[in-house]
């Protein structure tokens, strides 16, 4: 059934959950990375993706 959301490969589900729970959003890594400055902390990136269907 189409949900309108992109599915996450099953192998990534655990990694996304670990990143979401392990990142405190302290921002230290963001200061050194242009990609993270644009997209947010790893926890902020992983959060929405962790709830996507598999
Ligand atoms: S923002 Fe970066 S340095 Fe801070 S907890 Fe998350 S991953 Fe680690």
Q: What overall form do the CA principal axes indicate? A: elongated
Query: Ligands bound here?
Result: iron/sulfur cluster
In total, the number of strands is 0
Summed over residues and divided by their number, the pLDDT gives a mean of 87
How do the helices and strands follow one another from N- to C-terminus?
Answer: HHH
* Count of alpha and pi helical runs: 3
- List segments where confidence is low: pLDDT < 50 over at least 5 consecutive residues: none
> Which percent bin holds the helix content?
40-55%
Q: How many structural domains are formed by the residues?
A: 1
Notes on the protein architecture:
This protein has 54 residues and is mainly α. It has one domain (10-50). It is 52% helix and 0% strand. The chain has helices spanning 10-22, 34-39, 42-50. Helix 1 crosses helix 3 (42-50). The longest helix has 13 residues, at 10-22. The model has no long low-confidence stretch (mean pLDDT 87). Iron/sulfur cluster binds next to helix 3. The site of iron/sulfur cluster (SF4) has 11 residues, from helix 3. It comes from Citrifermentans bremense. This is Putative integral membrane protein.
């Amino acid at each position: 059934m189409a949900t309108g959301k992109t599915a996450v490969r099953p192998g990534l589900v655990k990694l996304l959950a670990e990143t979401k729970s392990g990142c405190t959003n302290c921002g230290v890594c963001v200061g050194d990375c242009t990609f993270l400055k644009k997209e947010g902390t790893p926890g902020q990136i992983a959060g929405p993706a962790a709830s996507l269907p598999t």
